[in-house]
Specification:
By secondary structure, the protein is an alpha+beta fold. It is built from four helices and five strands. It starts with 5 loop residues before the first strand and ends in a 23-residue tail after the last helix. The relative contact order is 0.15.
Length: 142
């Protein structure tokens, strides 16, 4: 008998769930149009389901060969501190170990204290060798 109250599903969330998880986890918003394009183009996605509701997610995007980026790691605040972020990252790591060719670059941007989680999976700051940079060509209105 499985006493685990959580189920993992390996598909991106629908747009409403995606937007809600990002919002509830305190992440920057993304446009509905952007999410509609992005979600089906995920290389890998995992959701944590509890009582029929998605309470966590993570995705991998990229070109599927040389470059991969870990994105959208989000767990609803009421479910944080239960190891769900680690479960999401374990699934992502397993996917990358299976699928990424030799010498592929896997990157991510760590918000706030999330770098502590990612460090447990081998991620390290790139500075001073490289410095992460970002550009928003069409910033969201305030």
């Amino acid at each position: 008998m499985n006493d685990d109250p959580y189920t993992l599903i390996f598909e991106p969330p629908d747009i409403d769930t995606y937007m809600a998880l990002r919002r509830e986890a305190g992440m920057h918003s993304r446009s509905v149009a952007g999410a509609a394009r992005a979600l089906p183009n995920s290389l890998f996605a995992v959701q944590v389901i509890h009582d029929g509701e998605s309470v966590g997610m993570g995705r991998v995007v990229g070109d599927g060969g040389c470059f991969y980026q870990v994105v959208d790691i989000a767990v609803k605040p009421a479910y944080q501190g239960r190891g769900l972020g680690k479960r999401i990252m374990r699934e992502i790591r397993d996917y990358l170990l299976r699928e990424a060719p030799d010498n592929a670059l896997v990157s991510l941007l760590a918000d706030g204290e999330a770098h502590r989680l990612y460090a447990q999976f081998g991620f390290a700051p790139t500075a001073p060798y490289a410095i992460g940079m970002a550009w928003y060509p069409k910033p969201a209105p305030l």
